[in-house]
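Cont'd.
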Amino acid sequence: MTSIKGTRRKGVALHAVLLVGLLLSAFPFYWAVIMSTHTSSEIFTYPPNLLPGSHFLENLRGLFDAVDFFGSMGNSLLVAGSVTFLVLLFDSLAAFVFAKFDFPGKRVLFALLMLIFMVPAQLAAIPQFVIMAKLGWIGSMTSLIVPAAANAFGIFWMRQYMTGAIHDELLDASRIDGAHFLRQYWHVALPVVRPGLAFLGIFTFMGQWNDYAWPLIALTNPDNVTLQVALSQLNGTHGTTDYGMVMTGALLALIPLLLVFAIGARQIIGDLAKGAIK
Amino acid sequence: MRLSRRGLLRAGLAGTAATTLGGLATGCAVPTGSTGRNMVLWYWDGGLGDTVVKKAKARYGDSVDLQAIKIGGYYRSKLMTTMTGRSHIPDIAGLKGEDMASYLPNADQFVDLRTLGAERYRSRYLAWKWDQGIADDGSMVGFPIDCGPVAHYYQYGVFRKAGLPYDPDDVSAELNTWEKFFTAGERLKKRIPGTYLLSDVNMVFENVVQQGDRRYVDKDRHFIGDEQHVRDAWALAVEAKRRGIVSDLVAGTPDQLSAVQDGKLPSQLNASWATNDIKSGVPRTKGRWRVAQMPVRPSNNGGSFLAVTKACREPERAFQIITWLLDAANQAQGFVDAGLFPSTPASYTLGALREPDPFFGGQITMDVFGPAAQRVEVAYNSPFDVALGQPLKDEIKNVGVLGKDPRKAWNDAMRKCRRIATHLGVSH
Amino acid sequence: MATTLRKPPVADPATAGGSRPRTGARRYWHLYAAISPFYLLFLCFGLIPVGFSLYVSLHRWDGLGSMEWAGLSQYQYLLGDSDFWTAVGNTIVIWALATFPMIFLAMVTAVMLNSAVRLKNLYRFAYFLPNVTSVVAIAIIFGSVFSTNFGLVNALLQAVGLDQVAWLNTPWGIKIAVATLMTWQWTGYNAIIFLAGLQTIPGELYEAARMDGAGPVQTFFRITLPMMRPVLLFVLVVSTVTGLQSFSEPQVLLQTTSNDSTFAGGPGHAGQTMVLYFFQQTFDNNDFGYGAAVAWGVFLVVVLFSIINWRLVQRRGED
């Protein structure tokens, strides 16, 4: 039985630790903000400038001159949004099956899924390009959306999450009602796995948003690229890179991500704090 | 904010279906290259002067629609993927100098520029640079963009304080052998303790190798990295370490930058484009630098080419555009736009390149880089040079940074090289 | 593989409804349909590339020209390639140095975030930042943090009376620096996973524990940890798979402005991971055939390691 004073002291200690973590986490981000307000040559002075400079608008203007920022941002939103939606749907469906049902071949199929997860992603570029070219998808957003529509990572995550989160009694109850499989998925499973879906959604969106190795190869039409591909054109060779401008672009590109995170993360803790350890 | 599942599902379905169907519908014809009036040019940021590209678009706008595309990321992997995939190949492609050795064996992927009348232009370009664009079978793959003559950058005030020659002409004349260069390094260290002439041993090793007319593998696919020219470079690098004139700082780190700024690393052997690195890396050293000729003879580091791919439908037109983009006047503009050092000696006398540079105390750096560019030795660049040079560079770095015994390092490098050579089918 | 978890109930309307069991395909078709998108996509866009790379690994190929049959010689060479095995060792050491502190810190952070009431949104937001901050900024920051004469780390070491360390110039220093960067980047991410997992634990369980007079530590080990096992297993396996395939962290931290290969991983290759080695062979050396063989080597190491990890967690689960 702790006194109120003790609880408060504990709360202060907790916040102190969390605050240290916050500073550690946020500092390089702060540094990125600082870089975006300086010219390239100011960035590399030693000792470094720790305060904002006055070149943000200049960097911004340079950025907008160099790339079609909003057009490519629209493309990125389209790709990341579509992929996130498809991944949430397909992965959670498959995960529901793997977590809560038995059927012949389940173990083998799941083992295969895990194996696929472990294949190094770097293997694929050339043959994928050939396949996409044959399908006529090169240059279009389809070449980014379709292959990413379901993934082993998400199925594995949702399966692990559902195993703990969906209680068998719930399913049993709905089964007695004669609920169809899709109804069980929609009315029983989905409502309780919101936090898990929110996590998957945030990081799928983020992964798609930041991906550029494959988009760089697949999007051959320069007027129709995603944001990261557009920004990658700013990286010059032999010390000609304008870091202030690159950093400005990188920061602006983060805004939608931060918004998605803010919305999604609310689903993760939201009003469920009742499970908290006091 | 709570999102309803049904609403999300509906919105998601609609959006996704629209995109996917749109993509499916457009995909009928697969063009190998470009079509109609389009002429697609691939390069990278800083690969060509922006003003020049803009002018070219306007100039040739009547006959072709020149689409100049800056490709980001790992340029070569994107170009190779599209070429191997045989679709959406650009008509004109920039080729980076360090990648040339890997394109040249595949000369059949490009139009032989000799068939388009390239010979007529030969005399206007640096001879060694021109030769670098030619494959073993004699076909010409790349048309010269820029080059990267290497010179000796040094801090005037520090050299003066250490009692070394400090006027660019004197530095060029007096530090003209490695022995004199190293002696100067010892003197520098003695006069101003804690000061090193160069940042690392690799700067010595690689520059000495690049000064020569041979690298690691010869035309007959034979390993020559164990021969005298490499042994000499190795011995010089080890000597630099032994005489204590190189630091153990890693280039590009804050330690190195601050040492440069404080005058503790007052000298480097670097290509013309390093001017940009120094200006942005240590802006406070403005006015303190000078350039002089490096010891023995200049070498080259970097510089790229333009090529016409086999997918191009109008090679004559493409070639016309290339030769215009890379004539002496436009190369001078490329230098102003992006610091591209011209491969056309006629540019060196143009006003734009003869501006006194306040960063170098008002020195006209072209007086050093121009003659240097014209005295570079051409070496055969084998596609296996990177693989077989790496063990040597790794091991000399181990000597310099980790203090490994040079004899053991050399033996280890040779053992690795022989193994790699056998694997790659290079004789030794 | 799935035996760590409770045996799933057979939630099939057909048997539950009391009707006679139908044949497999008809009885289970909806389950197969539900998992099919992933496998179909893999067939179309995954299997062909994987098969192609297997084919490439049996050849010599420079990526553009014609292929030359090489049989198993690429793999034979791989087995005796000391640089590859150095890379395997580096990867595992860096992975271990990064993963265990990361999981521990993430768990602590998640539990703290779960119990802190005020400023929760702010903290959550801040802990998410390392995962999205531009790599260029990260590289510059960590380069300074680990710099020999001016770095924060050495300043701290000297403050407590220790010698400074040339972090980016010594084999162990490089590994620790890379591992620190990875820990920094992924702790918040994993904390968010754990946080999502913590939400599945019913409040009544904690209530009951409190009634029994259990302290916070006991509660953590008796309720939180066992309930989190599936999520913990997920984090461990994913950290293994992604950690063993890491390359961007050492690349940004160790690349220099000199003409060095950006894939070399610093002096003595001390920070060269398996995937960096793959890049070096494929793109620096233009050896696509050997690169493909290296990629398959990476794959086998990852599989082997994941199985070991899985078994370890599973065994502990059965105790």
